[in-house]
Amino acid sequence: MQLYDNIFYLNDLSLKEVYIFVILNSFIKYMIQRIQSIYLFLAALVSAGLLFAIPVYTTAEGNLVYAVDKLELVGLFFGSALLSLITIFFFKNRKLQFVLGRLNIILNFILLGVLVYQSQILSGGAAAPEKGIGMLIPIISIVFIALANKAIKRDEDLVKSVDRLR
């Protein structure tokens, strides 16, 4: 009876909601068992979520500038978030996961450089803008990815030590 109720409930949902449910269910079941998946998910959440809420810098006129206002920043932020999410799904291949984590760190350093450059270029003799807390988003993401890479390395070392014993 319970199986019938679950199937009946799924018929009331749209296809998109069912797809999201299946993805989240498999994510929670299989990949949350490792701490690096949580770190990578937090890095993706920081990269993709905070760019809408936190201003990157304030202009001399007092206007808040969000990352969403600049297309190249949006692409880099979402690229970083997407790379973090893709890295989560390579949980069976730890070496590739580690390499993708390093690539994501490099991407976040590039993003940080672009943010600093964008805040420093001024039209004419305008006063210097104030940097906002949004400049810290790539740094926070780098910290989470570095923690994930450390956990991946620890898992790889554990597997190698067990293989040596066999």
Automatic annotation (TrEMBL):
Protein name listed in UniProt: Transcription termination factor Rho
UniProt KW keywords: Membrane, Transmembrane, Transmembrane helix
Protein species of origin: Leeuwenhoekiella aequorea
UniProt keyword annotation of Zinc-finger present: no
Keyword Isomerase: no
TM spans (from-to): 39-58, 73-91, 103-121, 133-152
InterPro entries registered for this protein in UniProt: DUF4293
